[in-house]
Amino acid sequence: MVESPRTIAGTEPALPAGADAERFAGYGVMGQPFVSGHYLAFRHFAASSVGPGYESVWHRNPDREWVIYSSVAPETSCARYYGAALVDARVADISVTWTGPFALTVQVPGTLVWEIELGRSPATTAMTALGSVLPAALWRNPTVLSVMSRVAGPALGVGQVRLRGTTPNGQWFRLEPRMLWTVERTVARIDGGDIGPAGPLAEQTALGGFRLPQRGMFAVGQAYFEQYNAARHETGTPGA
Length: 240
Hints:
It comes from Nocardia fusca. By secondary structure, the chain is of the alpha+beta class.
């Protein structure tokens, strides 16, 4: 029997081994589109090879402008890889509160209250079973990741999926979503206003080579990025 996401979230993940990449482990909503044109995502990376663990919230407004809020400095959070595509990267006290085995609330004080209820589908159940037994060597195999990406998009109903590619700041990335759940219900308020019902965008959005899903997906897993090189990569601060 698969444990509930709340139980899994309560277990601190081990930092993935390896010295050839910057590494993270944790959970989050890979992305959640809204019919209004807003888009939200969040990450809770309790294990990080570039600094302390952190939370981040990603927000795209209907004008397609991205802001990432993080509990640590941009240089050691998601903006380290995506900053070139942002209009701003802000430090904030982000909270993630589990209100039930399949329910959680993400808050950025004074900015965002986001309620999320998770569920399962035959596709997420099958992909979770695969992720739990797939050897580490296959997760690093480009051909395997390409096949998984092509299969996952139609199976999950999320549009295009890319488990490997290049970030806006120029580093390569590789994603290992080991466990998946669907977002069954979600309500979000930004600056006190409800941003409307969940639903796919008119055009799937992306940050560099990372395609964000066209329906809400919650994942537990690991992420790998090319080691930062100041001579070849953008900084984590937008406009710097």
